[in-house]
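Pasting as-is:
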Amino acid sequence: MQNIAEGSKASGTSKKIELKLTNVARASLEELRLDYVEIEHSSDSRIRHEILGRMLDYAAGNQAKVLFRYPSKRQKGRAVMSQLIYQFYIRLQEIEPPIWRRIQVPDTYTFWGLHVAIQDAMGWLDYHLHAFRFRPKHKRDVIEIGIPSEKWDDLETLPGWDIKLDSYLHQPGQWFEYEYDFGDGWMHDALFEGLLVKEKGSKYPKCLGGERACPPEDCGGVRGYYQLLDILNDPDHEDHQEMVAWLKGHLKKYYPYNPDMSFALRKCAFPVPQPDGKKPFWKNDVL
């Protein structure tokens, strides 16, 4: 099959476009997915729409050729988009070898739901504030999404439970930032890898993989993390016993802590996030 994305970035004639659309009708689901990723920056919306339409059609079990149209506001999040999932790659900044996870969440999720999924996949305990940050090209303003709080008023924070993922995630390959615990400052790089079709019988959110253990909560950020590892690796260090006792008594009981421990995918569980996200833990002064 001729590659659907071939020449899509250049301005093609009507004949070329029709040829590509014909190829879409013959494409397998995997070919459609790969081609959609390749043409993510294409200005030719007809091809993008057609590929998405075919993907949705496969999900519905009907392989007839259909032309996809973006749903209206009334339809959004319902039948037309309910067959899709977002896939993300999440990694902690400044730590080597990298600590990362790959997750999938339903397209109906808000940023609150994505936050909960990241917490569960990474292994955090979710008792600190968080924020997603987007830095639009050619604009100085940073868009922050999380939990509005008067204690952190440098930047207006939009409530994550009110904002759907598709409000800011438009193109596969889009990077954004996720920060957890403003004290320790755990910065995560987040990559929107693609919009995919749900697998029949699968439950979402889902973690597809990852590497290395999450740092212990409240260990002091990246600097404190490396200091912790140095102390644990030196039984003669004056703070060794104190640090071991701290890990043993931690809420998550981290001891023995091995940063290179293989990520246990089977232990990754995803409880359903609060539907409105408004169970405000900050009222209990847990920051």
